[in-house]
Amino acid sequence: MKIILIFILIIFIGVYNCQFTPITPETTLLANVTNSIFSKTPRTSEDTYCLDVSYKIYIEVKSGFSIISESTNDTNFFLDRQLQTNDYYLYRLYTSFQPFGVSYQQLTFTTNDNNNHTYQFIIGCTDVTIDNLVISSVTKPFYLAGSYYYYVSISGIEPYFPIGISVVDYLAAVAYSYDPTYNYLIQLNSNTIQNLTEEISLTLKFSNNRLFPFKLKSYYSEFNEQDLATNHLDTFFPPNILSPGLNFTQFGYLCGPIFQSIVNTNISRPYQLVRVGYSEKFTLPIKGKKGNMTFTGSVIDKNSSFINGNGLSIDYSNFSTNIKDINPPKIEPVINSIGYYSSNSVPLFIASINNTVPYQFNDFIYNYFVETISGWPYGFYSGNNNNFTIKVSLIQLLKYSTINNLRYGFAVSGYYEVNYPISPKTPEPSSNPPKLLSYSFTKVSSLNYLLRLKIESINGVKDIYALNLLDIRYDTLVSGTIYNGTFETIVVFNEIVQIGINDLIGLSTIYNIGDVVSMDPLVTFQIPPEINYKLNISMFQNNNLRFLKNNLSLEEDSYNIAYVESKDIPPNKPMSLVLFDIITTPLERDATNLATILVRNPFTFNTSSGLFECKFIVPKNNLFGPVQYMVEYENQIGFYGSELVSQIFVNDNTVLDNQGPIFSSIEKIGDGLVISTTGIIGWKFNITDDTNGFESGYIKVMGSIDSSTYHFNFTVDDAISGDEFNGQYQILINITQPCISQEYRIVRVYLFDTNKIASRFNLFTPSLLTASIINPFINYLEEGINITILPFVCSTLQVIPNQKPTLLSFSTFGGISTIDVGASYRTISFNFSIDSSSTIKLDQLPIVYINSLFNGLVQCFSKIVSIGTNSIFYTCSTELPLGFGYPNPLIFSIYGIVNNGGYYYGYTNNDIQEIQYSIHYVNTTFSLNQPVIKSTDKYYSDDNGQLVIYGRGFSNIFGVNFTYSDSNLPPNSATLFSTYGSSVIKVGGIKITKYPFHIKVITSDGLISNQFTVNPVYFNSNITPTPTSSPTSSPTSSPTSSPTITPIPTMTPIPTNVPQKCQGNPECGGKNQGYCSSTGCICYAPWIGITCTSQIIIVPQPSINTTNPQVEIPTTGNNDQSSETNNNESQKMIFKSLISLISLRELDFNNKEVNNHIFDQWIFTPIDQFKNQYFTSISNTNITATLEWFNQSTSIQFANQNLTMNPSSIKYTIEITKYQFSSSLNQLQLVMAASLESNSNDICSLNQFGNTSTGDDSNYLKIQIENHSLYGRFIKRAIIDQTVKSVNNVLLDSSLNVIDDSSSLQSYIGITIPFYRDSIIVDPDFSVLIDSKSASGQDNSVCTKKKSGLTTSQLAGIIIGSVGFAAVIVIVTVYFMVKRNNQKKFVASVNKKMTEINGNK
Fold it and tell me: Sheet containing 984-988: which strands, arranged edge to edge?
C-alpha cells in the first residue's frame, strides 16, 4: 500500500532531477518538489526581483524514522515544516523577494538516526525580455468611475507570464485581463489628456530603465465635434464663495462648498474636472438629459483649477478660496486605570479613561480582539460633554498564545490614542494550530456553493475566513464540537482564494489553492473546476452575449434579460452581471456601503433553451448613453462591456436624477426659547426631489452638553403638506423644567428618494470624500451650520447635582443563567431599576449592552415599565445573533442614563456584579439540531415558485410552510424540496406574488424554525425590447392630426415620386371615390390605390396568440358587397396572405451579395393591446420589429413625414443596430416576402409594384387574387444614424425563387439601405383590400380553368401569424365550404406551402 501511495505522490509532484537532486544517499527518506516551474518572473515589469517565492517539498521517511531538523544554506530563504502525517512531511521553502539570477541551495534534513540528507535545489528569478514586444488590437475606450479603459493585445514579453506592467509617471495602470487575445486592460488617468482629440503618449516601463513608448486614441476622438461640450453655466453654493477675502467654515467634517455646472453636452461624461495640486476628480452628473446636463463638484480650499472641454480644446480657469476646516474630532485621554477585575465568575479587563476635550458627537473605536465602533452612549461612564470618563468592562481572555502581541486600543480615528498591552490570565505556549481534515464544495444555486469543512483544533476554532470576504463563526457548526467538528457555510464563487482558520488562543493556519490538506491520502485544497474554467471574450462575441433590450427608455425601471449562448461554456459555470451605471453602483457619488456596493445578478443555465439567462433591472431616471457592465466569471475577473461585445444604451430622452432629496426651506421652531415650565422646539422644513420624489428620511438630534439623543424616522406619508416632490415636514422636541440651557444640534441626516439615492449629512463621522456633493443642506451653505443648531434657555435655575443614581437591581427575565445561541429563538430580556432621586430625564432611555469576547456588542433598547416613589423600573428584550459569544459567557453593562442637570452615567459589568442578587452574565450553549433560517436567494415576483433557503439544522426536514401577505393566497406547503448538508433547502410550490411572504421550516421531530420574511423583487415578465426612439404615435380611437415631434436632421436629397397620369375608367374610380391631381389619383376613404378602386376591409382588432405571433381577425360576410364578383363562387374561397421578414443581405457596390443573414429565431413580446414586438440578432447586430395594429384612421409621423394609417392596417417598425460592413462601399438590404393564396383553382391573380400617387412618396406592392388584395406601402425614406436619408425599395422577384400562379402569388421586396454607422429604422405597412375590379379583367393577370363547384354560407376572418420564428403576418378571409373533403385538402395544401416557406428561410 505504501509503494502505491509513493507512486501516486511521485506522479502528482513530478520528478525534476535537473533542478532538485540528492547530494547524499537517500537512505531513510525520499524528497521531491511539487512546483513544475523553477524559474520565477517578477510580479511587475519594473521589479528587479521576484516577490513571495515559495516551493513545497514532500518527504517520505522510512518507518521508524523521523525528521528532527531542517536547514538551508541560503540565508535569504526560510525552510519550515507545514504538515506531518505519520511518515509524510510537507515543507515550505520561501522568501519575500529573490533577486534576478540563479540560486544554488543546499537543503539538509536530519533524521533521528543523526543522518543528514542533503539536496541541491537550483531555482531562478528571470527578468523578462521585450525585444519582440508588440501592442495591437486596441479597442475603443470606455469610461468608468473617473477613468478611461482600453482593451489591448500585448505580445512579445518573454518568458510569457501575466505580469503587471508599469507606466512612466504613473499616467496609467496596465493590468492583466486574463483574456488570451485582449490580454491587458489599460486604465488611463484623466490628467493624461492635454487635447481632447490628440493621441495620448504613454511609455511602458521595464526593469533597468527599458522603455516602450506607444500611443492611444483619446476617448473624445471617438465622438463628432458637434457632440462635444462648448459652454457651461456655473452656480456656486454658497454663491459668494469666490469673493476675495471671504472666509468660509465647513458645514461639517469634509463638507465644504460645491458648484453645479450646466453643460451643453451630447456626451454623457464630458471632459470636466477639478484639479487641486496633482489630484483630479471628474464632476458628477446629477440631473438633466442629453444636450443639457448638470454636473456637480466640490470646491477645495486654496488654489484650484476648473477644467472644461470646449469643443476640441480645453479651458482652464483658476479660483482661490479660503475655507476653514472643521477640525476632526480628537481626544486627549488621561488613563485613569487599566487593569483586571478578579471574580469567581467572569474575570474582567477594565479600562477607564478621562477626557477633557469636548465630545463632538463622534464615534469611538474600541479594539479588543475585535474592532467595535460605537458612539454615545456606550462607554460613557460619567460626566458631560465638556469633561467625561469612558469606562468599559470586557471579558478577560483566559489563555492566549505567547507568540501574539495583544493590545487594547481606544481611538477616535484610525490612530489609536490609547494602545495598551494586555495579557491573558494564563499564557499558552501551545504551538499546535488548527488543521483542516477534509473539505467539499457543493453547488446549490447559480453563484453559491455549500462549503463543508471538517476541522480539528486542540484549542477550539474561533473563526474561519477567506481573504477577509468570508467570516465563518460558530453559527456554521453542524456536527461535533469546536475542537473536532464539521462547519458548513455558503460562499459565493468569487470569494474563495484561500481558507484561514483561527483558534481561540490566536494560532492560525492558511490553506491556499494547491496546498496539501492531507498527506495520507494525498488531498490538496482546490476550488471547484467550473470556477477555474477559463473563459475569454471571444466566447461572448458574435451575438453570443445579447440583451433582450439594448435600447432603454428609463422613465421607469427597465426590466431586462441577458442571454449567453456558447457551447464552450459549461452549464454549471458560475457567472454574474454587475451593472456600473451611476445609479446602481454609485462609486462616484456615495460609497458609504462600499463592501456591498457591487450587486451581482446571477446567470442561470436554462436547460430548455440551452442559454444562460440573467434577469437584471436598470433603475429609472438614469444617465443617457452606454450602460457600463461587467460579466464576472472568476474572483474579480471578467470583462467589461465594450465594442467587443453587445452593449446597452439609455436613450437620449431619459431625464437623469442622480441627486438625493435636499432641504429647500428650513424654519427653526423655538429658536432661543426661554423655558419656564415647558416648551417645544424643533425644525419645520421642506424636502424637494423634482424627478424621483422623496421616500423616507432619518434625522438625529443631540444635546450639546448632556448628549440627549432624539431619533426621527419619517416617510413621505408624514408630510404635513405637499407631496413627494415638494413636501413639508417637522420634527419637535418637548422640554420641561427642571432642565439645563444648552443647544440641540442636528448631527446626522439621511434622505432617500424613490430610487434609493441618498443625501447624507454627518457632523463628524462617518466621513466621506463626497460629503460635500451629497449634503442635503446645499441651499444653506451661505447661512452656515447655524441652521442645524437650536439653543434654548431654562429660566429657572435649579442646580441638579452631579450625583450618580444608584443601580438598585439587574437581572435577566426569569433569572436565566444560560442561553442557547444555537436555538431558533434566542431572545434575551432584562429587568433593572435605578434610584430616581437625582431627577432622571425620562425621555432618555438607557441601553443594555451585551458584550462577547470575540463577537463585539449587541444593544438592547429599554423602555420604562413603571415609576415608583424613589425608583424607575426598566425592561428590554432583544434577539442575539446565531452563535453569538459561544463558547464564552456574555456580560452586561448599562449606559445612557441622563439626569436633568446635564450629566450622564453608565454602569460597567463590575458595577452590576456589586448589586446583590444581580445576574451580571450568562453562559452560552450551542445546540446543533434546531432549524434556523438565515437568508434566501433573491426572489423575483415572476419566478417559477422555486427558492433556495439558507440556514442550519436542515438535516432532518419534514416540511416547509408558506404564508402570504396577499390575503387572496391561502397558506401552503412546499410541493418539493431537497436538502444539501444541514444548511441549504431548495423548495418549490411558492405561489406567484409580488408581496412579502413568510417561510417556516419543520423538522421530523417537530422542531419549528424562526419565521423568515421574503420580499420579492418586482420584475415585469412582459419585457419589451424597445427601439431607441418611437417613430410613431400610439393609435387612437379617432383620426388625429400630425403629432408634434422634434424634426430629425435630414440628408438631402430625399426622393419624391414623379407626377403620374390619372388612371381608371371612370378616372380615379369616379367622383365618389377619388379625384385627379398633379401627382395622380387622390382617393377618398375607404378607397385606395392608383385608380381608387380598391376598398379597405374594416375588421375588429385581432387577438394575439401568446405562443407565437398568430392572430385571428373575425369579419362579416358583407365586406365585399361592392365587388362586382360578389357571388356564391367568391363566397367559397379562402384567402391567406403572408408577409415575412426573410433576411438581411450585405451587397457590394455592384449589388452583388456579400453576406446573407437569414432570420431563424425570434423572441416575441407583447407591448400593449395594439403592439407586439419581435427581437433577433445576427452577427452582433440586433433587429427589433414592432408590429402595430391600427383599428381606425390615424395620422402619424415618420422620418419627418406625415402619413395616414388606414383602419385595419398593420405597420412594421424595423430597427437595426450597428452592422459590421465588410467595406464602407457596401450596403444592406432587408428582404421581405409577401404572398397571397386561395383555395380555388379557377381564378386569376395579379402582381403590381410601383409608385404611389397620394403624395406620400412611397412604393406600393399589390398582390391580387380575384377581388382580394394584399397592399403594402414602402416609404422611400428611413432614419439612418439619427438622420433622415433615402432608401431604395426593390422588387426581387426576378432574382429569387417566387411562387407565381393563379391561386398562389408571391413577391420579394428588398429595402436597400446605404452604409451607416449606428442604427437604422424603416417603416413599411400593409392593408387588406376588396377590389371593385377582379383580377380576371385586368392585363398581365394569370388565370386558370374552373374545376369542381363549391357552395354558399360565408364566414370572414383575417389571421395575422408567424412562420417559424420570423415576424410574419398571415391575413386570411375564410368562407364555409359545403364539401368537407375539399376543405381538408385545401387546408393541407396551405399548411404544406407554409412549411415550404419556412424551409426556404
Answer: 932-936, 947-952, 984-988, 976-980
- CA distance linking residue 1343 with residue 1245, whole number of Å: 7
Report the C-alpha gap between 1100 and 588 in whole angstroms: 54
Of 1090, 1352, 1032, the C-alpha closest to 1212 is: 1032
- Cα dist from 605 to 446, 726, 920, 976, 1138, whole Å: 8, 46, 54, 20, 35
Question: Going by C-beta distance under 8 Å and a sequence separation of 6 or more, which residues neighbour residue 1040?
Answer: 1033, 1194, 1195
Buried b (16+ CB within 10 A) or exposed e, 916-954: eebbbbbbbebebbbbbbeebbbbbebbebbbbbbbbbb
| pLDDT for position 120 | 92
Between 78 and 1045, the more confident residue is 78
Q: Residue type at 38?
A: F
Give 1110's pLDDT tier (boundaries 50, 70, 90). very low
For residues 699 and 687, what is the distance between their CA atoms, to the nearest angstrom?
13
**Which one has a higher pLDDT value, 1296 or 377?**
377
Mean predicted confidence (pLDDT) in 127-147: 89
* Rounded Cα distance, 790 and 788, in Å: 7
Residue 389: Cβ within 10 Å count: 17
Tell me how many degrees the CA angle 478-481-483 measures, rounded to the nearest 5: 130
Distance CA 991, CA 962 (A): 9
pTM: 0.72
Query: What length does the chain have?
Result: 1401
- End-to-end CA distance of the chain: give it in Å, rounded: 65
Give the bridge partners for 1251, in sequence order.
Answer: 1259
981: cell is: 448538508
E strand residue ranges, 776-882: 789-794, 807-812, 818-820, 827-835, 847-851, 857-861, 863-867, 871-879
Distances (CA, A) of 242 to 273, 465, 721: 18, 51, 37
Predicted confidence (pLDDT) at residue 655 exceeds the cutoff of 80? yes
Residue 137 has pLDDT above 90, yes or no: no
DSSP 241-283: TTSTT-EEE-SBTTB--EEEEEE--SSSS-SEEEEETTEEEE-
Q: Which of 1121, 1116, 1072, 1110 is nearest to 1098 (CA)?
A: 1116
Cα separation, 1350 vs 1344, in Å, equals 16
Please say whether the beta carbons of 753 and 693 come within 8 A.
yes
Dihedral pair phi/psi, residue 1028, rounded to 5°: -60, -45
CA nearest 1180: which of 701, 681, 646? 646
Lowest mean pLDDT among 264-273, 518-527, 726-735: 518-527
**What cell was used for 400?**
492566549
CA within 13 Å, CB half, 410: 23
> Tens digit of pLDDT for each residue in 1139-1159?
778 888 999 877 888 899 888
**546 vs 1381, residue with greater confidence:** 546
Q: Are 362 and 375 in contact (CB under 8 A)?
A: yes
- What would the DSSP string read from start to end of 160-200? ----BBEEGGG-EEEEE---SSS-EEEEE-GGG-SSSSS-E
* Residue 1182 near residue 1364, CB atoms below 8 Å: no
- The label of the residue with cell 412604393 reads 1259
Give the pLDDT band of residue 472 (cuts 50, 70, 90).
Answer: low
Could you tell me if 482 and 460 are in contact, meaning their C-beta atoms sit under 8 angstroms apart? yes
Q: pLDDT class for 757, splitting at 50, 70, 90? A: very high
pLDDT band, residue 1026 (cuts 50/70/90): very low
Q: Is 677 exposed, middle or buried (0-12, 13-18, 19+ CB in 10 A)?
A: exposed
In this structure, are residues 579 and 616 in contact, taking their beta carbons and an 8 Å threshold? Answer: yes
For 317-335, give one letter per residue: b (16+ CB within 10 A) or e: eebebebeebeebebebee
